[in-house]
Amino acid sequence: xxxxxxxxxxxxxxxxxxxxxxxxxxxxxxxxxxxxxxxxxxxxxxxxxxxxxxxxxxxxxxxxxxxxxxxxxxxxxxxxxxxxxxxxxxxxxxxxxxxxxxxxxxxxxxxxxxxxxxxxxxxxxxxxxxxxxxxxxxxxxxxxxxxxxxxxxxxxxxxxxxxxxxxxxxxxxxxxxxxxxxxxxxxxxxxxxxxxxxxxxxxxxxxxxxxxxxxxxxxxxxxxxxxxxxxxxxxxxxxxxxxxxxxxxxxxxxxxxxxxxxxxxxxxxxxxxxxxxxxxxxxxxxxxxxxxxxxxxxxxxxxxxxxxxxxxxxxx
Length: 316
What we know:
Elements: E1 4-5, E2 14-18, H1 22-33, E3 37-41, H2 45-53, E4 57-59, H3 62-65, E5 70-73, H4 78-86, E6 100-103, H5 109-121, E7 125-128, E8 131-132, H6 134-139, E9 143-149, H7 151-156, H8 158-164, E10 165-170, H9 177-205, H10 210-217, H11 225-236, H12 245-261, H13 267-284, H14 292-300
């Protein structure tokens, strides 16, 4: 790992953000604050209306957005990335040669390599740039970027990277390195969410007060960032989706499939993946990923906060 650098390059220019979901919205807002002209692309008209009210330029397709100095891709998976880049209304249709494409999608490293090559063959510059930090840090312009790409691409995108990230890790020039590291991060994140859900469900089963459990554990050795972040969702019974169950069905699926392809062993990831899959099958896929606690609670014969009105949804 080559460490990280914080760019001091003056921001400006034009940036396109494809996908104004949780992280993409934060990136777009950070770019606006930094003085960029920002073109937002999303399929949801209401999201575009909100972005227009914030001072952004809004487009229903990447092709309509036209040219930009940098293009951030924040869609859900590799299939969507292929469509928004190379489809009939894809960004590649109107992009100028040398445009820097930042692939912020969490996808299999093999998919990243394939997409990066197609972009480079079309004369574009590419940074494999998966992100982490959550919605709040995205809004604050404090994401972590796990990046790999050419020196020239990083230099051209320096102002935009400085606007959206607190830390930019430079992992090398090879596409796929960023995606590999993001995969490892998601392995830990998914397992930690599942572990937090298990701990809080067991705490409820043995009669402990959940708020007290959270307050004690968060300052003790058993804590994790995910426990501190997701624990309040379980305590309060608030499963408003900041990162949905379905995201970890995808991300842990990437972990287990990529591990299998190289002979890696991931028993904890497989267990956590099965829990997220069960939650999705129970109709909880669009809820916050902490909703896996409902599955464990149902199996334990307990009712957690937020389950009273719809406990039947957590059938397994």
